[in-house]
Amino acid sequence: MSSQETPSPVSNFIAQIIDEELQSGKISKVVTRFPPEPNGYLHIGHAKSICVNFGLAEQFGGSCNLRFDDTNPSKEEQEYVDAIKADVQWLGFKWGGEVRYASDYFDQFYLWAQHLISAGKAYVCDLSPEQASDYRGDFNTPGKPSPFRERSVEENLDLLERMKNGEFDEGSRSLRAKIDMTSPNMTLRDPVMYRIRKQHHHQTGDKWNIYPAYDFAHGQEDAIEGVTHSICTLEFADHKPLYDWFLENLPVPCKPAQHEFGRLNLSYTMTSKRKLKQLVDDKVVNGWDDPRMPTLSGLRRRGYSARAVRNFCNSLAVAKTDGVVDVAQFEFFVREDLNQNAPRAMCVLNPVKVTVTNFADHIKGAVQVLTAPAHPSVDLGERQLPFTAELYIDRADFSQDGSLSRKKFKRLVLGDYIRLRYAYVIKADEVVKDATGEIVEIKASLVPGTVGENPPEGMKPRGVIHWVSVAEGKQARVRVYDRLFTHPAPESADESGNSDFMQYINSQSVRVLDNCWVEPGLVSVAPESGFQFEREGYFVADRYEHSADKPVFNMTIGLRDSSPGK
Ligand code: ATP
Ligand code: MG
User: Does residue 483 carry a catalytic annotation?
Assistant: First the structure.
């Protein structure tokens, strides 16, 4: 599979259902929706849901709505609304029509609540949340009817109106559907439809003192929008009878059907907005878009392309079970995408100076401009590499130990030869140390005529290393990342039964290197440009901080999978 094009999603059971319904004429056009609650930023799990919902709509020539499920204002914010819109667009999807909000329909929901009351199918209940929970029973105990269950229609309508107007305290009353207190399905035991919440709402301001529960809102939102397939994750399977109950008992314009699929869970990754928010609030990371975060904005800042994220999501089965996917599988798609598409460049992360002592004997002027392809197999043009008498190489690429085997250490050794990538073969002749014994300079000599040519007999280089000109290169900051969690299942419980993901935070998840040196062409690149730093890994110019004056790169991913067992 080429990573150039996003493959179509593997066929799945929902696609089969849609196909049959289109064939039989049950539906004429598929309408799906992606319904985030704006209480945090989108993460990789949401990307799967987005790819499924928008992907199915695309596949069958239908449309997918973006709808904010904004029924709980206490945790919601405009910042999240804006970030979610930007993330969906970044992923490459276009929603049908305007952005929608559950709150657009609050007036309609209210009329429908009155409708159910009038039909004797809803009532205002004065039990406190704790009392109501006692009355509800549990899996083994049938519930008991609330003492307020048989209120008259008039009293219920009046109380609901007054709840709406803010006459009662939060928690003192609720509106409940009158269904079945003995149902084996707990969600049917007179579920709450409205709660009193004297909260300001980011879309409706102070208009409402009551807010609808998810169950009373979601199916009706789908029906108002003409959604045909309401696709959600498995935890809502139990809610399906309730979803259907509201649609059957209300004069809704159409009857959408709910279908559930398994959540995406990834090893070494947390996909819960609430817990990710804790990482942000506790300053474990630097914001929602910290490159270590599994949020879409974090992955983006890390240098993962939208294409790689889509390719990964589309490679996953849409299943009826929850499972954990190895994060290495995700990284495979990221690496494959970058290998295909990222131009190559040189960056020395831990520099030591090399002085070419015979430079002037063989090269006219201070600089010889060499050229190299930007990519070894894809035509991405050429880059210029100025070669000068002083160069940086990486400290890890040099050793004074002449006894090191040529097979094992394919780098520069005192007294031996190495090829500088796209440049000359050089020989390390001498080291200069400071008072502490640290090497501060390597004196070397170049072998003339070796650019693109083999050296004479007896001067065989041990290998090829990368380098940057001291005079022409540019100092850069590079952030090197490791996994944020040390545990493959950070949300799992430890031996004592506690589940505290904070104990699995990797304290070494970022290293900031301030004295890296990049080839000159990298200075003028646009933020978010991705590169392979040869022999080091894939890196991206930081979306916010990179500039020609102060280049800043984030490590995206290593060149190969170095996880245990690989
Ligand atoms: P979180 O637990 O992160 O808060 P959520 O389900 O509460 O997730 P929503 O904003 O309600 O977040 O999610 C929007 C849509 O994305 C829902 O349809 C939800 O089912 C889906 N979704 C959320 N997390 C995942 C996941 N890990 N895998 C697949 N779909 C997901
Ligand atoms: Mg949710």
Answer: no
